[in-house]
Amino acid sequence: MSMKRRQFLILSTLSGLGLAIFAKLFRSQTAQSSNSKSTDTTNLASEPAASTLADTPSNPTGEKPLLRFVSVADTGTGATGQYAVATAMSRHQQLNPYDLVILAGDNIYNNGEIEKIGAVFERPYQALLQQGVKFQACLGNHDIRTDNGDPQVSYSGFNMPGRYYTFRRGDVQFFALDTNGNADWNAQLPWLEEELSRSDAPWKIVFGHHQIYSSGHYGLNQPFVQTLTPLFKKYGVQLYINGHDHHYERSKVINGTTYLICGAGAGTRPVGNSEWTAHSAEQLSFAAYEVYRDRIIISGIGTDNQVFDQGIIRLESA
């Protein structure tokens, strides 16, 4: 048994005290601006990236996707950058209709004040909301600064039945996490394992606010590498989506999972490259996904409406 797996089994069977220690470790880790890039990245693989759709046709046979959706994070500023990304998201929706957005936290800057919802959500995404596009949100670290994020959980436009939850769209099951340091890990980790074990969806996608593998400001998140990634591997989670770091980064496949950072929804910070990186960019952007029976095509799209990265996740059992 590997050290990481042994650590996870210990953590998952500990009492609430043990999980409180984990939460303390996580809070300590996210308080740092660590750029550590050393890790065991066994089984790294990736499809090559493409600079534009024209360079590498993503769907030359004309096959229709089972599902289209997009993801974006760290959006809630109400400033020019957010509006630029929102406009690009709307343009993409006109050309490639979708009705789902994964909103991966820090939905309201700076302190999660729900009274700002018009300026930082309803007006920037008005065109998408009018088209019936549904946003599924999770809580970021800025969101919990006011009433621990409860007003956002209650806000109908974020479609959050709880602080963590799951929903299914056809062949895809999504699992939303509260990745904040004060989350109820004692309940959330067993819930996640139970829901993953029960799922018969061919595609399993987990999303939360905080990074796991990142080449940006916050770097590698060791507590989550130890506690979450063994679950992803055990139950075949193909994709983890997050924000927190304000850049775009698509990882190589790490033990069956691709890690996608889409935190450049309103502003950017510098990003480097790590051994796990397939593509990274300090660029205002969102990520778009086309789900097929045997693959998911991921596209990084900038405010110029151009695809600057493209990768493919293959379904192992297909």
UniProtKB/TrEMBL annotation:
Pfam families: Metallophos. Keywords: Hydrolase, Signal. Residues 32-45 have a biased composition (Polar residues). Residues 68-248 form the Calcineurin-like phosphoesterase domain. InterPro entries: Calcineurin-like_PHP, Metallo-depent_PP-like, Metallophosphoesterase_PAP, TAT_signal. One of its GO terms (molecular function) is hydrolase activity. Gene3D superfamilies: 3.60.21.10. Residues 32-64 are annotated as: Disordered. The keyword Hydrolase applies. This is Metallophosphoesterase. It comes from Symplocastrum torsivum CPER-KK1.
